[in-house]
Known about the structure:
It comes from Flectobacillus longus. InterPro entries: DUF4295 (IPR025379). This protein is an alpha+beta fold and 49 residues long. The protein has two helices and two strands, in the order H-E-E-H. A two-stranded antiparallel ribbon has the order 1-2. The longest helix has 6 residues. The protein is elongated, with a radius of gyration of 14 Å.
Amino acid sequence: MAKKVVATLKKEGGVKYAKVIKAVKTATGAYSFKEEIVLQEDVQAILKA
């Protein structure tokens, strides 16, 4: 069964986090997905990189 990750990322009065899922192209031409949990302020910087 899948777990709800979003519910654990929200805490009142704490630091806000976001789950970022990026599609990354491998050397063979296929796509794989990379998941990261980062600070909400850093989401745009992670997606641009």
